[in-house]
Amino acid sequence: MIPIIGGAVFILLYVIATLFYPGGSNQHPNEIGFNWLTNFWCDLTGSIAKNGQKNNAQPIALVAMLVLCLSLSVFWLAVPKLFNSNSFIYKSISYAGIGAMIAACFIFTDFHDFMMNIGSCLGVIALSFTLLGLFRFQYYRLFWSGVGCIFIIGINNLIYYTHYFIDYLPVIQKVSFVFVLFWVGAYCAEGLKKRT
Question: Does the pLDDT value for residue 191 go beyond 80?
Answer without folding.
Answer: no
